[in-house]
């Protein structure tokens, strides 16, 4: 997609003239190579240039219902084109995934408040791909791929989202009719939240408690038809609808769903993992948690989403900060660009570094997921808990950081940041939604902490540990002595590791002490705050460790000028991290006041260096103007023209006197009260 062709603001041009590395080289890294960048630009342009999308229409002014209808209309334009492009590209599955992955971000510009088909093209399809036997794949995949049926993933209920073992929807098998009967026995058993469920899809993966031969066999996935394929009317026994207005995701069409004696054929239970014989005999899977697999895949994908939201928000905040002038630093000088205020740099530069490090982590986790899945396909499930713990931990840490950073970016744009046209509100709403969906973040941290405590026990007993938690051995080896701080990047990593291990030890000790008077479960609950802190610190250890490893590799493969920028970014991430976690570090590391002052000074030096590179890095994220969709963050930096133009489009400005004046205001003013 070409940059905006209008004249670039002179302050922004002056900044770009000073960039001392090759921006394109950075972009090539961010998207995985020059070929991928070309592909991304092509796909973006292919979709966004379509006039039928009518992207001129600002949907934020529409009613709830109109927003949904417009989102469906636009999505259909997109998906028709997707299939056309897929055919042109050769029609392989890889081509499809390639388009989908690029489309994910383009979709944000097309449906800023969410995509009413996202669950079909993600959780629904992925569950069928990964949890079915061969016959089921043959039956369902072509229909899903061709969109002859549309589906969602219906797990959460009114009463339970986190504790999925206690979901209440039942699926009772009758071997005589070879059917399941689905029921929602209570109000709290109603499915509640599934995206696209309300009025869009006609099928769902339904997670329900399986009853057979008089016993409950835990939650299992079923594919269930919900609406008639011709009329789209709910089928008999199905009570379905939209859950109403939300904080965000307005056009995702999250829904509710109740069942009353709904019959589902035998072949519709997904049977790759658990199996039910036709006579009703249940055969347990190798690991009961295999049914949670789709959630793991999506959590892995959520890290790159977090990186991209931060990249987008920092692009807006930085470009704006380079053209906005306010408050002279020296009283007799002209007002500087607001970025010259060091506090502004402190708000934005660490965010840019996070986007880069999260992208490194997303690449790492994607590879790890692939390799553990391949092991799983050969029957080796040994590393499933490690992947589960890591994906929970990073999903929580990255989306928490994401929401925090996006909000700081909004604040860094002052009053204008509060305008919808600034483009930060939808990013924030999507960030904060991600803190809850696919596992509430506290709960995710507690899952990761379980793994940490297990590993700590293992380390104490001289057992073996997975690579990512080997630092627990160092802590135990120090035998109560504190880690000595040294001010290098690896020194910072060791300090954060010591803090994470130390907090794990505090949580472990808390549990051990409380166990004397309580059950292990109660003792674990009482240690909850320590456990979440330990898991959070562990997440930062992983990010820094992977950041160091990946960025060292990158530096070896890019030009020296870009290498220096990456080095600067890594140090920014590390120093910002240790200063933010200094309380935890002080508890477990021998670090002096002078060391801390040195770190603070180092941060200032890092800011100074990054001051000239920052614009190159955010330009290198390569968000085109339609994707940025921001009056403050467009490539040309013409923020004031953009702001007034956007304001003029307000529906209230389409007439110079609003009817409420004659209806209410004038009579009120003339009434003399
Ligand atoms: C048409 C063609 C398409 C082609 C497709 C191509 C697609 C390619 C592109 C893909 C693009 C992707 C795009 C992504 C965008 C997606 C946008 C999505 C929009 C939003 C959708 C939102 C959806 C949802 O929210 S779905 C609902 C999610 N719900 C949750 O997350 C619930 C959270 N709760 C849990 O996960 C569990 O209940 C848990 C883990 C908290 C506890 O479970 P439990 O059974 O009660 O477990 P417990 O007894 O406590 O034991 C813990 C024990 O179990 C181990 N464990 C748990 N889970 C796992 C696991 N998954 N794997 C391995 N082990 C696991 C855990 O380790 C503990 O072990 P021990 O400590 O040893 O006991
Ligand atoms: C935008 C959005 C989209 C969604 N899309 C889907 C979808 O497509 N399909 C689907 O099935 N679901 C979907 N969900 C549901 C989502 O997965 C759940 O809301 C989420 O897993 C949290 O569960 P909950 O709502 O039951 O929260 P609760 O578990 O009730 O959480 C409430 C509070 O209790 C705390 N808490 C709960 N359990 C524990 C514990 N064990 N230890 C400590 N604290 C605890 C939590 O930390 C939280 O503070 C969506 C949700 C949202 C917001």
Automatic annotation (TrEMBL):
<dbReference type="InterPro" id="IPR037069">
    <property type="entry name" value="AcylCoA_DH/ox_N_sf"/>
</dbReference>
<dbReference type="InterPro" id="IPR012258">
    <property type="entry name" value="Acyl-CoA_oxidase"/>
</dbReference>
<keyword id="KW-0285">Flavoprotein</keyword>
<keyword id="KW-0443">Lipid metabolism</keyword>
<dbReference type="InterPro" id="IPR036250">
    <property type="entry name" value="AcylCo_DH-like_C"/>
</dbReference>
<protein>
    <recommendedName>
        <fullName>Acyl-coenzyme A oxidase</fullName>
    </recommendedName>
</protein>
<dbReference type="GO" id="GO:0071949">
    <property type="term" value="F:FAD binding"/>
</dbReference>
<dbReference type="Pfam" id="PF22924">
    <property type="entry name" value="ACOX_C_alpha1"/>
</dbReference>
<feature type="domain" description="Acyl-coenzyme A oxidase N-terminal">
    <location>
        <begin position="22"/>
        <end position="149"/>
    </location>
</feature>
<dbReference type="InterPro" id="IPR009100">
    <property type="entry name" value="AcylCoA_DH/oxidase_NM_dom_sf"/>
</dbReference>
<comment type="similarity">
    <text>Belongs to the acyl-CoA oxidase family.</text>
</comment>
<feature type="domain" description="Acyl-CoA oxidase C-terminal">
    <location>
        <begin position="489"/>
        <end position="670"/>
    </location>
</feature>
<feature type="binding site">
    <location>
        <position position="156"/>
    </location>
    <ligand>
        <name>FAD</name>
    </ligand>
</feature>
<dbReference type="GO" id="GO:0005777">
    <property type="term" value="C:peroxisome"/>
</dbReference>
<keyword id="KW-0274">FAD</keyword>
<dbReference type="Pfam" id="PF14749">
    <property type="entry name" value="Acyl-CoA_ox_N"/>
</dbReference>
<dbReference type="GO" id="GO:0055088">
    <property type="term" value="P:lipid homeostasis"/>
</dbReference>
<dbReference type="Pfam" id="PF01756">
    <property type="entry name" value="ACOX"/>
</dbReference>
<dbReference type="GO" id="GO:0005504">
    <property type="term" value="F:fatty acid binding"/>
</dbReference>
<feature type="domain" description="Acyl-CoA oxidase C-alpha1">
    <location>
        <begin position="292"/>
        <end position="453"/>
    </location>
</feature>
<dbReference type="InterPro" id="IPR002655">
    <property type="entry name" value="Acyl-CoA_oxidase_C"/>
</dbReference>
<feature type="active site" description="Proton acceptor">
    <location>
        <position position="438"/>
    </location>
</feature>
<dbReference type="InterPro" id="IPR055060">
    <property type="entry name" value="ACOX_C_alpha1"/>
</dbReference>
<comment type="pathway">
    <text>Lipid metabolism; peroxisomal fatty acid beta-oxidation.</text>
</comment>
<dbReference type="GO" id="GO:0003997">
    <property type="term" value="F:acyl-CoA oxidase activity"/>
</dbReference>
<dbReference type="InterPro" id="IPR046373">
    <property type="entry name" value="Acyl-CoA_Oxase/DH_mid-dom_sf"/>
</dbReference>
<keyword id="KW-0576">Peroxisome</keyword>
<dbReference type="GO" id="GO:0033540">
    <property type="term" value="P:fatty acid beta-oxidation using acyl-CoA oxidase"/>
</dbReference>
<feature type="binding site">
    <location>
        <position position="195"/>
    </location>
    <ligand>
        <name>FAD</name>
    </ligand>
</feature>
<keyword id="KW-0560">Oxidoreductase</keyword>
<dbReference type="InterPro" id="IPR029320">
    <property type="entry name" value="Acyl-CoA_ox_N"/>
</dbReference>
<keyword id="KW-0276">Fatty acid metabolism</keyword>
């Amino acid at each position: 997609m070409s940059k905006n062709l209008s004249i670039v603001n002179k302050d922004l041009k002056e900044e770009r003239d000073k960039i001392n590395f090759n921006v394109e080289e950075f972009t090539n890294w961010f998207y995985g190579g020059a070929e991928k960048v070309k592909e991304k630009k092509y796909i973006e342009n292919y979709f966004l240039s379509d006039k039928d999308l009518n992207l001129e229409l600002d949907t934020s002014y529409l009613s709830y219902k109109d927003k949904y209808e417009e989102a469906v209309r636009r999505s259909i334009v997109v998906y028709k084109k997707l299939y056309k492009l897929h055919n042109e590209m050769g029609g392989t599955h890889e081509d499809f995934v390639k388009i989908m992955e690029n489309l994910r971000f383009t979709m944000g510009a097309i449906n800023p408040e969410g995509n009413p088909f996202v669950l079909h093209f993600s959780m629904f399809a992925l569950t069928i791909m990964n949890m079915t036997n061969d016959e089921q794949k043959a039956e369902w995949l072509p229909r899903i791929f061709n969109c002859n049926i549309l589906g969602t993933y219906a797990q959460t209920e009114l009463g339970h989202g986190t504790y999925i073992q206690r979901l209440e929807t039942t699926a009772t098998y009758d071997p005589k009719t070879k059917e399941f009967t689905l029921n929602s026995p209570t109000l709290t058993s109603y499915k509640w939240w599934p995206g696209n469920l309300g009025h869009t899809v006609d099928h769902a993966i339904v997670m329900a408690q399986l009853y057979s031969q008089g016993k409950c066999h835990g939650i299992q996935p079923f594919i269930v038809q919900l609406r008639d394929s011709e009329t789209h009317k709910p089928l008999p026994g199905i009570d379905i609808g939209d859950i109403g207005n939300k904080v965000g995701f307005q056009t995702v069409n999250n829904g509710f769903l109740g069942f009353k004696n709904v019959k589902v054929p035998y072949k519709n239970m997904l049977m790759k993992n658990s199996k039910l014989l036709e006579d009703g005999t249940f055969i347990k899977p190798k690991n009961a948690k295999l049914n949670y697999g789709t959630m793991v895949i999506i959590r892995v994908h959520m890290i790159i989403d977090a990186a991209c939201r931060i990249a987008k928000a920092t692009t807006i905040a930085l470009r704006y900060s380079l053209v906005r002038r306010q408050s002279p630093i020296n009283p007799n000088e002209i007002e500087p660009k607001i970025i010259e205020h060091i506090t502004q740099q402190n708000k934005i530069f660490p965010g840019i570094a996070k986007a880069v490090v999260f992208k490194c982590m997303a690449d790492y986790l994607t590879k790890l997921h692939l390799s553990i899945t391949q092991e799983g396909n050969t029957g080796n499930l040994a590393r499933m808990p490690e992947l589960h713990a890591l994906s929970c931990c990073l999903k929580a840490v990255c989306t928490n950081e994401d929401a925090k950073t996006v909000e700081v970016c909004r604040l860094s744009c002052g009053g204008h940041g509060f305008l919808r046209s600034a483009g930060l509100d939808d990013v924030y709403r999507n960030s904060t939604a991600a803190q809850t969906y696919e596992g509430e973040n506290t709960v995710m941290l507690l899952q990761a902490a379980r793994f940490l405590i297990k590993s700590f026990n293992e380390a104490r007993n001289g057992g073996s540990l997975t690579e990512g938690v080997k630092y627990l051995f160092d802590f135990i080896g120090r035998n109560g002595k504190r880690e000595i701080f040294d001010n290098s990047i690896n020194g910072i990593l060791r300090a954060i590791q010591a803090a994470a291990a130390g907090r794990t030890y505090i949580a472990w000790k808390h549990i051990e002490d409380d166990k004397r008077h309580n059950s292990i479960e109660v003792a674990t609950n009482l240690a909850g705050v320590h456990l979440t802190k330990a898991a959070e610190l562990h997440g930062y250890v992983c990010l820094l460790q992977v950041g160091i490893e990946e960025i060292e590799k990158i530096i070896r493969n890019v030009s020296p000028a870009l290498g220096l920028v990456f080095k600067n970014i890594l140090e920014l991430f590390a120093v910002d991290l240790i200063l933010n976690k200094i309380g935890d570090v002080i508890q477990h590391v021998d670090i002096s006041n002078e060391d801390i002052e040195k770190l603070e000074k180092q941060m200032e030096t890092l800011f100074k260096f990054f001051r000239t590179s920052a614009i190159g890095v955010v330009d290198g994220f390569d968000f085109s103007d339609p994707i940025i969709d921001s009056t403050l963050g467009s490539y040309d930096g013409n923020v004031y023209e953009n702001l007034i133009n956007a304001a003029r489009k307000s529906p209230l400005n389409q007439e110079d006197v609003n009817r409420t004046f004659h209806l209410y205001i004038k009579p009120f003013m003339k009434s003399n009260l």
